Amino acid sequence: MLVFWRALSLILLLMPTMILQAAETKAGMEDFRAGVEAFEAGDLNAAKQRFQRAVDAGLRSPSLFYNLGVVCYQLGDYGAAESAFRSLLDGSNGALARYNLGLVALATEESAEARRWFEQASAESAPDKIRALARAQLNKLDGGSPRLARQPSIRGYLGISGGYDSNIAGLPEDTASSEGGVFLEALAAGTYERPVGTRSRLALDAAAYSREHPSDDEYDTQVLQGRLAWSETLAAGERGALVSLVKSWFGSESLETRYGIEGFYRWRECSLPVAPDQCGIALAAATVNGGSGFEAYDGQWYRARVHARKYLGPWRLDGDYSLEINDRRDLQTTSEFISVSPTHHTLEFAGRYRWRPDIVFGTTGSVRHSRYRDAHQLVSGEGESGRRTDNRLEIGLLVEKSLDSRWLARGEWLVRDNRSSLSQYDYQRQTLMFTLEGAF
After folding, report:
1. pTM (whole model) above 0.85
2. CB neighbours (10 Å) of residue 423?
3. Which residues, including other chains, have CB under 8 Å from residue 437's CB and lie 6 or more apart?
4. How many CB atoms lie within 10 A of CB 409?
5. Rounded to an integer, what distance in angstroms lies between the CA atom of residue 431 and that of residue 411?
6. What is the residue-wise DSSP string for 30-60?
7. Region 308-319: what's the mean pLDDT?
8. SS3 of 430, please?
9. Per-residue pLDDT tens for 21-62?
10. CA atoms within 13 A on the CB side of 233
11. What CA–CA distances, in Å, run from 241 to 48, 202, 203?
12. Is it the case that residue 236 has pLDDT exceeding 80?
């Protein structure tokens, strides 16, 4: 524990410049000053109470949340310390917050999590003092504390959702319903990670997802996924590879089984326009076996994806471009030929604004252009024949409320509009969803 206090004493040298920031409310500033005085006098409990009262009074300065995090850390209230430091992630003090989150993870003996925070805090874009401290902690994890460096970790996630969907079709690429209904969702995931060297690790994770429609179980969906991944930390970023097995069901019938591989590389610094703080690329491929009645989906699936992230004050901005190619058997009968082999070009954007430490507002958007490999041919029945091309626009809004250091509640509204060259594939969709999720 001595090393934690030494590191903390160094980082506290950065506090004076932060304490001078302006307050949003007079009462909050008075409590903040009283908290600083109590901290300097060594009365940590009183300092914590005063800092928390300043938060409750509406004060939102980064220095307040930093000092609150430090006091909670020293008192051993690591959950509250983590919550306070996380409120600084999206701003100019992000490197400082990441370093301290690494200290919190060390204190709770989560070495893999600590390593990730220290690696982010040691990026070249971080201030020199913080970068030096983070690299010193990484060196200790690599050689100075073998027990922590090689300790495996287990993490879990649980999300439970409910809402209303105006178009509950589970396969919009093949057909779209005009039926709306209430739905329930559940997602559970777990990861076991074990270091296999000073900078490499193996991870085994599993996830189970289910979406149920009480009004019509014909559109119910279930997915099971398992993955084995290897990753390695490098000076400039991280690289890795994984193999995966995914099994899905539509209604009560088996839909697809996918056997896939993926490789990725992530950079901590990116020489790109607008100078993103993080960026990465991933390449993936899979063999797909359709279930009984879904043999048209047999074939291969390929995807290339690039991602970038930028922090601007309280904003976190994410952008993605992906190219997805499907080479499927397609559906062919005596009366029709329907291609299920699209090429998708998708551009996605997400913005998150941290209004308060426990409240985040966000927006999402995507534009997707799809072109199907072969022309549809309908001899009889409703619908048009010809080459199918689609343009899909999606816009969403969300708000998140942190309940504590592990649980949060989220509300989302999503609007999707798909315009196709074949009229039978035009559809609109609105989804309103509320989620409770926790990370363990």
Report:
1. no
2. 10
3. 157, 158, 159, 160, 407, 408, 410
4. 13
5. 11
6. HHHHHHHHHHHTT-HHHHHHHHHHHHHTT--
7. 83
8. strand
9. 343 467 778 888 888 888 888 888 888 888 888 888 877 788
10. 20
11. 44, 10, 11
12. no
Give the E-state strand segments of 329-379 in sequence order.
Answer: 331-332, 336-338, 342-356, 359-372, 377-378
- CA torsion sign, 16 to 1 to 191 to 359? negative
pLDDT of residue 302: 98
3-state percent breakdown (helix, strand, coil) of the chain, nearest 5: 30, 45, 25
Instruction: Spell out the domains of the chain, with CATH numbers in brackets.
Output: 16-142 (1.25.40.10), 153-439 (2.40.160.40)
Closest CA to 93 of 52, 62, 56, 49: 62
Alpha carbon 115 to its chain's center = 18
First-to-last alpha carbon distance for the chain, in angstroms, is 23
The 3-state DSSP class for residue 106 equals helix
Question: Contact 138/120 with Cβ under 8 angstroms?
Answer: no
Question: d(Cα 175, Cα 170) in Å, to the nearest integer?
Answer: 9
CB neighbours of 429 closer than 8 A, spacing ≥ 6?
Answer: 165, 166, 167, 172, 414, 415, 416, 417, 418
The whole-number average pLDDT for the span 241-268 is 93
Three-state SS for 138?
helix
CB neighbour class for 178 (10 Å; exposed up to 12, middle 13-18, buried from 19): exposed
- Please determine, for residue 289, whether its predicted confidence score (pLDDT) is greater than 90: yes
Q: What is the pLDDT of residue 22?
A: 40
Here the tokens at position 360 are 């985040």
- ∠ CA 152-439-187, nearest 5°, is 110
